[in-house]
């Protein structure tokens, strides 16, 4: 575990950076999909509401590992088919980082959609009705009344989804991405010291979760300043 020429310290730190990067990318993709899904769930069009309901039901019901496999092998098959049209032969694998981030994002989007939807439903209806009575257009009503308050209520739930995304990032090792879990497996196999490497990986995951959890906690406290809470 040293940082010398024969140590694995730098490799584990680099893999930790990959884990954080893929988790952040997947989380941001999920946030965008969650916002779109939440907006669709409040739409006056039944087709959009049904599509949002189907999306969150399917993605929360299918195992995350299966989603990653479907994204990776589905996109790889598509790339291979396109390559064959230009004379390429054999199987062409999709980029593991991009595929994994998209897969995690699609899954987390289903959970974030429910978080955002619940945050909107928690808003006092009187304020929204007052904005409509004042003549605010829908976009202005959303920007000035709905978004600031919904974001305040959504922070705790979004923080929980981030913790899930962080743990799900370990599953991307199955498609070849050398993130923290995969690097721990490589180190354990090379040195035959599995306990040390997996314990170190566990400590690094806990460290990331602790730091990010504190960040969400501070964001929640800042967002709730001036708001009286029931005791």
Secondary structure topology:
Blueprint: H1 9-41, H2 46-61, H3 64-85, H4 96-121, H5 125-133, H6 138-168, H7 180-191, H8 194-223
Helix pairs in contact: 1-2, 1-4, 1-6, 1-7, 2-4, 3-4, 4-6, 5-6, 6-8, 7-8
Give a short overview.
The chain is mostly helical and 231 residues long. Helices cover 77% and strands 0% of the residues. It is flat and about 70 Å long.
- CATH architectural group: Orthogonal Bundle
End-to-end separation: 48 Å
How many domains? The number is: 1
Mean pLDDT: 88
The total count of helices amounts to 8
Whole-angstrom Rg: 22 Å
What would the CATH topology be? MetI-like fold
Shape, per Cα inertia axes: flat
- The portion of residues assigned to helices is over 70%
Q: Would you state the CATH class?
A: Mainly Alpha
Strand fraction band? under 5%
Give me the strand/helix succession: HHHHHHHH
Runs with pLDDT <50, length 5+?
A: none
Tell me about this structure.
It is found in: Cell inner membrane; Cell membrane. One of its GO terms (molecular function) is transmembrane transporter activity. Belongs to the binding-protein-dependent transport system permease family. HisMQ subfamily. The protein is mostly helical. Helices cover 77% and strands 0% of the residues. It has one domain (9-223): MetI-like (MetI-like fold), CATH 1.10.3720. The protein contains 8 helices and no strands. The longest helix has 33 residues, at 9-41. The N and C termini lie far apart (48 Å).
């Amino acid at each position: 575990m040293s940082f010398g020429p024969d140590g694995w310290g730098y490799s584990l730190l680099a893999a930790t950076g990959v884990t954080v990067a893929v988790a952040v990318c997947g989380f941001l993709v999920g946030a965008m999909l969650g916002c779109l899904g939440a907006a669709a769930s409040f739409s006056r069009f039944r087709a959009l509401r049904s599509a949002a309901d189907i999306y969150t039901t399917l993605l929360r019901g299918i195992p995350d590992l299966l989603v990653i496999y479907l994204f990776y092998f589905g996109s790889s098959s598509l790339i291979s088919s396109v390559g064959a049209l230009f004379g390429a032969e054999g199987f062409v694998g999709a980029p593991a980082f991009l595929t994994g981030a998209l897969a995690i994002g699609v899954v987390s989007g289903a959970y974030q959609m429910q978080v955002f939807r619940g945050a909107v439903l928690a808003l006092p209806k009187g304020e929204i009705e007052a904005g409509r009575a004042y003549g605010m257009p829908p976009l202005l009503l959303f920007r000035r009344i709905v978004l600031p308050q919904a974001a305040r209520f959504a922070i705790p739930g979004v923080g929980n989804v981030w913790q899930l995304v962080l743990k799900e990032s370990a599953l991307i090792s199955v498609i070849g991405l050398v993130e923290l879990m995969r690097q721990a497996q490589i180190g354990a196999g090379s040195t035959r010291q599995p306990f040390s490497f997996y314990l170190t990986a566990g400590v690094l995951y806990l460290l990331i979760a602790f730091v990010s959890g504190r960040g969400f906690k501070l964001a929640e406290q800042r967002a709730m300043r001036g708001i009286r809470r029931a005791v």
